[in-house]
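User: I'm writing a short report section on ligand binding and want a predicted complex to refer to. Could you take this sequence and alpha-D-galactopyranose and write out the structure as tokens? A short remark afterwards would be nice.
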Amino acid sequence: MPESVTGFAPGRVNLIGEHTDYNEGLALPFAISEGVTVRAEQIDGDRMEAVATDLRRNDSFELARPSGARGWRAFVRGAVAELQEAGVPLRAARVEISGDVPRGGGLSSSAALEVALTLALIALSGSPEPDRIELAKLCSRIENDWVGAQTGLLDQLASLLGEDDHALRIDFRSLEITQVPLELGEFKLVTLHSGDRHSNAASGYNERRRECALAAEELGVPSLRDATLEAAAALPSPLDRRAKHIITENQRVDAAVAALEHGDMDELGRLLDASHASLRDCYEVSTPAVEGAVEKLRSAGALGARIIGGGFGGHVLGLMPPGAHVPERAREVRPGPGARMMD
Ligand code: GLA
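Assistant: Sure. The structure tokens for the complex follow:
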């Protein structure tokens, strides 16, 4: 059995398909090169020691009985508890966490942390790596039950199953995943922070999720994946707008896959803009700072720009044509490989 291991999990950018994951819909994310690294080293005794290097904070708790905590500690305790619940024979360890994906910025630092932690702890236990879709579900339980954010599976699947130069078309009903080549040539995808920090748990994310469940119930369908625009239009406000966003966003995901297949970047830009307008007007998850950041990318010549992730702040994404001047502080993002062990 190894004495120490190092796991790395990337953050993600969602090209299109926002808030569709918990509605059994479609999304098109890709893993980025920034992420979270977890080094786990076996120690004597029956306690877990954790160090968040960038935050200069630590934690210590009983391996057999992790109790709840707040912030980054909830992720570590939740990972230990959920892995043991799933039958992984964890050993006492010291885990060191560091990362270069901005926290709370819509680039999925949370999923990167869950995935890097679980991969490292599983490897240190000497157990074989589980099926990655099952591991994504386990990571999502950490976030739902230990951190208190009722998020879906988008981020974990992107972090675990990303591939170089590809986006993943995910069907959240069947969990069928198709790798879609993301060949941009001279075009660039860039992210720009809006200046508003967001927090999924504290924001309206959970409220949006409840509204979608209510809309589906009122329509008498298992999820909004089955809803039609005609039926959605008859729902009371704001459920009518929430449902309209989900239905049209699913359509935009497949339109984006087709645009990529044809190398039609103008069309991809139009779809990003349409997604943003829908997230702003129907889903109401934009903020003035986000609008400012989207505007900045558009004035720099972006073919399309939109808010990404849960919303209420964080990063925006822009598609820049060849030769366009990328605004200061905007950073290019490229599709990279998914989570992996580094040893
Ligand atoms: C956050 C959640 C995801 C997904 C997106 C919105 O990133 O963690 O599950 O719902 O918001 O698409």
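A remark for your report: The pocket of alpha-D-galactopyranose is lined by residues 14, 18-19, 21-22, 108, 151-152, 154-155, 200, 309-310 (CB under 6 Å). The longest helix spans residues 239-261.
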